[in-house]
């Protein structure tokens, strides 16, 4: 059963309410139906919680012990998860190429410039190099904040295939 309610001039909100009638037969039908409804409602609440969670994470690959990927000799990797804060932004970073980098990122995300050309790869790679303390991780965190993305850190020395 669907019921629609339309607001008034002062409150133009529209609401649709869907009512389901669930029927069961048998000696414990009421119990089974109620358990199913509770399980479905918990699933729905869990889905809504994940939809509303705007947390971003920094994932670091760690080897999963002696375990191997199923059907291969490749080692299995697990990931540690760290919560990313919103403190590192491009507003708190200062380096000479900052405006050029932001322009390139905006062109990439908005498919402008060379990224608008048909057949141009839909990829943007950045190579960061330098001694500890020169801002590589801060740049990555600011980029994750700017793009509202997670970060996955992969040690390229441990990659043994190009697939």
UniProtKB/TrEMBL annotation:
Signal peptide: none annotated. Pfam families: AAA. It comes from the Eukaryota. This is ATPase AAA-type core domain-containing protein. InterPro entries: ATPase_AAA_core, Mitochondrial_chaperone_BCS1, P-loop_NTPase. GO terms for molecular function: ATP binding; ATP hydrolysis activity. Coiled coil: none annotated. Residues 126-160 form the ATPase AAA-type core domain.
